[in-house]
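Hi! If you just cloned this repository, the fastest way to understand the data is to look at a raw example. We've pasted two of them here, unedited. The first protein comes first, obviously.
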Amino acid sequence: MQSGTRALGVAESYVDDGGAETSVLCGAVVRADRVVDGAAFATCTVGGDDATDAVRRLFTDLGREDVRLLFVAGVAPAWFNLLDLSAVADAVDRPVLSVSFEESDGLDSALREQFSGDELDARLAVYDSLPPRRPVSVGDDTVFARAVGVADDDIARVVRAYTPEGGRPEPLRVARLLARSGRAWREREGFCGPPTAPDRRR
């Protein structure tokens, strides 16, 4: 992976305080050599079904044709607002990797506990369409990746290329930090729309 190859990392900041209706998503453009090269923000509905559209919107708003692939943090942001990875990959015409950081028995039982009827059916359809999780060792850590548009044999190589230290790919680490800052700013200012950040293309 060349040092200037750019990836878009998307992560959220959501705190279950009993009253949150939206979760802040940040998309951070980060080069393989760890240079941060742009950011944008969006929101999705807690417990809704609009996270996939929010990720597509982030990519469109950034307008970064130089981004070569997308990382997303997990597949169920904002309380089971499931991401359709294939739909994202089709929309952005880029490979998409979902990376999570804990072992899991899957979301099937949790979805059945929290939802029923059409809401459950819609979420199960998205969840069942996802590619399998694959463990990837990164130094002393293990992460779990799903990928669309990346060959199975290349998943570990791509994840490691963007994870210079620790167990979190740099695009996701930066996006997570910015999303937390964006959420805190919105709460302090009472701001109703998502914050924006300048495009610092290099």
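Ok, and the second one:
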Amino acid sequence: MPEPSHCPDSGPGQSQLPLSTAGAAVFSGLDQYGLNLQAVFDLADLPPELLATLGLDRAGRARFRQLILIGHLGRDFWAALQRRGMHGAHPVDQFVTERVAAWMADALPGHAWCQVFPGPAPVGLQRLGALAGWHHASPFWVGVDADWGSWFAYRAVLLLDTALPVTPRREAGSPCAGCVDKPCISACPAGALASEQTGGWRLHACLDWRKQPGSSCLDRCLARNACPVGERYRYADQQIAYHYLHSMRMIREHY
């Protein structure tokens, strides 16, 4: 289960950082731990249906002005996590929570903030990723980017009382639109990906294949690995296996 939301009881207006000109430098304390993707949104500009997933009451809407989506790209986050050690019941989420709290205390001291993901609220991560320009649909149901491929992930969502510069939308576009060979589809041994041959996405075909003894998809997605986009950002095998084995535990529990 995710950790509870982290909402320190700190008041606004105490930071001396010139937020209107801080730019990317304010995020250096996250970058050094591999949390190297950040997108700042004004809450007032978010679609109502996305705001609804944040669980904000009237007091929360009055307290917070902005949302920051934090992610990681490539292998640096995993390397930082290994240096810290895989401690606790949910080591990835706990590491993220630790680093976010340390970054806020150092970079934005005195500002009111709340971590809503990781947390209990069903935050619309993919919708936020699409608004940031990071997330485009792929046949293997993992978000892809024209440069990064699928080798990035959403790690935290914060609400803050800051006035940071809003991040321009990334306009790299979808790599799938111009992909002719579509190697991901032919690489799927379950034939689960949407295509002219299989029809729509076949979730249970994927799950049934993964649950087979000795499955080739137990600790990886062969379709995802076959995508050539963003190869230089590809996760280490240990990182890939960790996440897919974690998902297998959830699959066996719920399907």
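That's it. A detail worth noticing about the second one: The longest helix spans residues 237-254.
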